[in-house]
């Protein structure tokens, strides 16, 4: 049995019932608690109840951290809107939305010198949520369930610039997020115009894909235009890709739907624009960390951070201390903002977090190499105008959001 609605074995039906029962505390907060949604998580873990439950609970924590309920209203920085490629364009024969990823004309280094890696990843998370919404709209329009999307990767022009380590890390992290948070939503990943360098690029990201995802990859050969019409009707496919669809003005690339990227002008580069603002510099050895504490005097304060680094990326996170008057390791504290690596040597980081109760906030930067880190002389605290005001950051937007109500000392790490 496929494990889908209407095609369940007695054992699978029993697992679904038990899964729903085990998640009674969580179901009011999930985007859609129907059987289609729950079966996605069960199929992803071969109907192992404990693994499926753990996976869904981690996803709900991820939704809270990334504020996914509001991410469709988040706007990435202008440089990403103008020069990051891709777009939703058309539907396959079954009505599933199709998303085009244009790789060759992408300027990854220019983008990552002009916006943070977190912004780039956040934009791709937004695409995932956009595709889920489009599936729901198609379900309503067609009167039958649409729960998967088709992705087309146009690899023409793939070169060594696309194998730049920070750029590869964006796609590695994206596929990790896709696997952990959007199981069973990919119908097929179709690769067209793949050059000789493609196997090298694929080897860099394939370990971040599940075996099921790798089975869904279809690589088309020289007759890719003809083959692509076996998946997508010509009237739903731009002329550029072998179909008949054009923009209203006749443009064969459908530029109103698909962005083709392009070289990022150096005027957008941020690497040298913010450093003069920093009044404090710290040098920390390999494997060491720098911890800073801030007292939150009253609820609603917004903790803001700005930092840059020289020579390498760093890890950064915010934690809630559980004991006053003594130093604690990150694992001994309550995680508020998960620690992750930032390319602050390329683009200075600027973010914020709303603290809903008074206490002491502690943060820490973990240094992967020995290099100086530029920090403001004080970590500014701003009063929020109301609940929810100031929850989005100036740089990452929906990336940093208010967590559950907290009290006590906050620590940024």
From TrEMBL:
Cross-referenced PROSITE patterns: CRAL_TRIO (PS50191), GOLD (PS50866)
SMART domains: CRAL_TRIO_N, SEC14
Protein name: SEC14 like lipid binding 4
Gene (UniProt): SEC14L4
Source organism, top-level taxon: Eukaryota
Residue intervals of the GOLD domain: 252-413
Ranges where the CRAL-TRIO domain occurs: 76-249
A cellular-component GO term for this protein: cytoplasm
One Pfam entry name: CRAL_TRIO
């Amino acid at each position: 049995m496929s494990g889908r609605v209407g095609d369940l074995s007695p054992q699978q039906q029993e697992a679904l019932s038990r899964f729903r029962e085990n998640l009674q505390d969580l179901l009011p907060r999930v985007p859609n608690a129907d059987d289609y949604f729950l079966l996605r998580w069960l199929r992803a873990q071969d109907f192992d109840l404990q693994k499926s439950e753990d996976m869904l609970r981690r996803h709900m924590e991820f939704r809270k951290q990334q504020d996914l309920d509001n991410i469709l209203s988040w706007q990435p920085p202008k440089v990403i809107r103008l020069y990051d490629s891709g777009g939703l364009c058309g539907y396959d024969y079954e009505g599933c939305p199709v998303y085009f990823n244009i790789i060759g004309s992408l300027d990854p280094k220019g983008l990552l010198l002009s916006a943070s890696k977190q912004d780039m990843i956040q934009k791709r998370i937004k695409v995932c949520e956009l595709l889920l919404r489009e599936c729901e709209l198609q379900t309503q329009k067609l009167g039958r369930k649409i729960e998967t999307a088709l992705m087309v990767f146009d690899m023409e022009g793939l070169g060594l610039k696309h194998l730049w380590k920070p750029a590869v890390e964006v796609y590695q992290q994206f596929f990790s997020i896709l696997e952990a948070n959007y199981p069973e939503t990919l119908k097929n990943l179709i690769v067209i115009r793949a050059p000789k360098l493609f196997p090298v690029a694929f080897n860099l990201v394939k370990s971040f894909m599940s075996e099921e995802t790798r089975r869904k990859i279809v690589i088309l050969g020289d007759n890719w235009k003809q083959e692509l019409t076996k998946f997508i009707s010509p009237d739903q496919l731009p002329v550029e890709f072998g179909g008949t669809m054009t923009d209203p003005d006749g443009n064969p690339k459908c530029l109103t739907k698909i962005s083709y990227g392009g070289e990022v002008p150096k005027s957008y580069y941020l690497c040298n624009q913010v450093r003069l603002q920093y009044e404090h510099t710290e040098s920390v050895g390999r494997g060491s960390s720098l911890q800073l504490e801030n007292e939150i005097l009253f609820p609603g304060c917004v903790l803001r951070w700005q930092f840059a680094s020289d020579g390498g990326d760093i890890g950064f996170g915010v934690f809630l201390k559980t004991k006053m008057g003594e130093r604690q390791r990150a694992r001994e504290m309550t995680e508020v903002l998960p620690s992750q690596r930032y390319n602050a040597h390329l683009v200075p980081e600027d973010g914020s977090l709303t603290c809903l109760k008074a206490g002491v906030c502690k943060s820490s930067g973990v240094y992967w190499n020995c290099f100086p880190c530029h920090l403001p002389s004080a970590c500014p605290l701003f009063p929020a105008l109301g609940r929810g005001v100031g929850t989005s950051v100036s740089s990452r937007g929906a990336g940093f959001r208010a967590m559950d109500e907290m009290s006590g000392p906050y620590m940024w790490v």
